Amino acid sequence: MANLLYDALFGRHIGQKTPFLHMPDGHVISHDDFIRSAARYANTLVGLGSEAGDRIAVHINKSPDALALYAACVQAGLVFLPLNPAYTAAEMEYFVVNSGARLLVCDPADHDAMEKVARRATVRLETMDATGRGSLRDLAQLQSGDFTTVDRGPDDLAALLYTSGTTGRSKGAMLSHQNLLSNAQTLGDVWRFTKADVLLHALPIFHTHGLFVATNIMLLAGGAMIFMPRFDVDQLIRLMPRATALMGVPTFYTRLLASDDFTAGLTAHMRLFISGSAPLLAETHTQFEERTGHRILERYGMTETNMTTSNPYDGPRRAGTVGTPLPDVELKICDPDTGTTLPDGDTGMIEVRGPGVFQGYWHMPEKTAAELRSDGFFITGDLGLIDDQGYVHIVGRDKDLIISGGYNIYPKEIELVLDTQPGVLESAVIGVPHPDLGEAPLGVLVPDGSVDLDLDAIAGTIGQHLARFKCPRLLVLAQDLPRNAMGKVQKNLLRAQYASAFAP
Ligand code: MLC
Ligand code: AMP
User: Fold this and answer.
1) Is-above-0.85 flag for pTM?
2) Is the minimum distance from the CB of 399 to ligand 2 under 6 angstroms?
3) Which of 8, 201, 359, 370 is deepest in the core (most CB within 10 A)?
4) CATH code of the domain made up of 4-153
5) Per-residue pLDDT tens for 466-486?
6) Whether residue 209 has its Cβ less than 6 Å from ligand 1
7) Pick from 8, 1, 67: which is nearest to 33 by CA?
8) Spacing, Cα 300 to ligand 2 middle (Å)
9) What is the CA radius of gyration of the chain?
């Protein structure tokens, strides 16, 4: 046995003093420095009692040390479990308990709130701040920069990423070493990444896009990343002259276009702009080409499947499509009720199969069986069609999901909190077009008549339970909710009614 993921991403760069992370302040971390740092964390994690297969939950801000923790987990055979630092303590408790994590790493500023979570979940707590400082680094600094890599097979887990469920409870998607390695290899090839590339990295590293698509590809290629703590349009523009490629969600591109400093001259040297995680409006694609001469390459994927389709590097990149299935991916359009394959041109459920498709949901065999067929096809919940050129178009979703600025928001989770507010009879949360975020959540509340509803007070209360990005940008009152003959809320009618709520 070996550890192919570690060897391919990290091990083969041992001793290389080539730049890996360029920090915005000019500080550079070489491949070798990064790998030594990861080894120190691997020694620390094992020293704290972690054993192969244990989950390491991290609720920390983006930093080189946070990324080194990911590498440390791969090297030590541990399962990396990154969580959005915006999650509240109430949200975190579920993830930590459900995953049975061995260790929770949080920002020192959240220590007191997370200590309560850690105590209830009987998990050890360590800290790391946005500069990497904290109790975990204090321990790591005492450790050796060499670590004997733990053997892992292709199906062993490398990461557990929680994706929200339609019933309100998040599901842990189990991603194996082979899932991650195969997708990074395929994408690196089709997008032609080499060691000469410098990627502008402004995405968070707790999701597939920033952690696996961006980082794994660059590690495999041996290139470098300009590692920004978060997306900031002015900083991105300032740093673009030093980069060759950018990966982002559509909001990155609309915000760049909104800046007068974003010009053709600024982008003339750039090799590639890639968009994903949410639909890129054809209008944005066109405006981007008009401004810069570059055609954004749009691709499609999910946490559970890794990336599955891409517009071509050389051939036509067609606005409003997500391109064709990747070389190692099978994609079919199926009847959502019967699962039978539909002819090209018909709209139906997108199902995909390939080496990137995950191993199932953590400790949820029924949910796994409902979405992952025994023949290996995963039912994505996205509705699409294949056109006469073989390009896939995503035309909607068969799941009640809002994608806001690339973050997934499941209405049910918000409705459950709204429904418990005094004076609320029932609620419906819908996604409404938003000029900056693509879609944003809007909550419709039906009063029970017992008290006058104070919408500002309700907004404040739910913000204590739910991460800010999930909180509806607008709450409105309604007499009742439109329902069909089966009693199901007709969200399509609500979406039509409030379609211009966030119009500029
Ligand atoms: C931040 N806020 C959001 C938000 N991001 N609200 C709704 N949707 C979002 N996406 C809220 C904050 O809580 C805050 O609220 C206010 O907006 C401003 O916060 P901010 O930190 O200044 O936001 P900003 O930096 O502008 O962030 C916007 C963003 C960011 C688009 C740059 O959300 C982002 O980086 N998104 C990328 C998400 C991503 O990586 N997705 C990939 C998933 S993987 P308040 O109330 O406190 O003011 C996947 C698979 C695949 O989907 O195919 O890739
Ligand atoms: P996540 O569960 O966070 O991995 O989000 C995956 C979902 O994002 C997919 O099921 C799609 O609904 C959506 N998605 C990803 N890429 C695209 C894209 N290029 N166009 C439209 N939707 C996308």
Assistant:
1) yes
2) no
3) 201
4) 3.40.50.12780
5) 999 999 999 999 999 999 988
6) yes
7) 67
8) 6
9) 23
Contact yes or no for 125/104 (Cβ under 8 A): yes
Q: What SS3 state is found at 275?
A: strand
Q: What is the 3-state secondary structure (H, E, C) of 279-323?
A: CCCHHHHHHHHHHHCCCCEEEEEECCCEEEEECCCCCCCCCCCCC
CATH 3.30.300.30 boundaries in the chain: 401-497
Residue 302: CB within 6 Å of ligand 2?
yes
Nearest CA to ligand 2 atom 15: 277
Ligand 2 proximity of 300 Cβ (cutoff 6 Å):
yes
Q: Give the pLDDT confidence score for residue 1 in this predicted structure.
A: 75
245-248 sheet: strands from edge to edge? 28-30, 19-22, 224-227, 198-201, 245-248, 272-275, 297-302, 306-310, 324-325
Chosen CATH of 190-397 out of 3.90.1300.10, 3.40.50.12780, 3.40.1500.20, 3.30.2130.10: 3.40.50.12780
Q: What is the DSSP string of 410-462?
A: -HHHHHHHHHTSTTEEEEEEEEEEETTTEEEEEEEEEE-SSS---HHHHHHHH
Ligand 1 in reach of 215 Cβ (< 6 A): no
Which residue minimizes the CA distance to atom 47 of ligand 1?
A: 468
Q: Which ligand is nearest to the CA of 401?
A: 2
CB of 104 closer than 8 Å to CB of 96? yes
pLDDT < 50: residue spans in the chain: none
Q: Cβ(279) to ligand 2 under 6 A?
A: yes
Cβ of residue 274 lying under 6 Å from some atom of ligand 2: no
Q: How far is the CA of 408 from the centre of ligand 2 (A)?
A: 9
Residues of the chain with CATH 3.40.50.12780: 4-153, 190-397
Residue 398: its pLDDT value, please? 87
Taking each helix axis from N to C end, the angle separating 282-292 and 250-257, rounded to the nearest 10 degrees, works out to 50
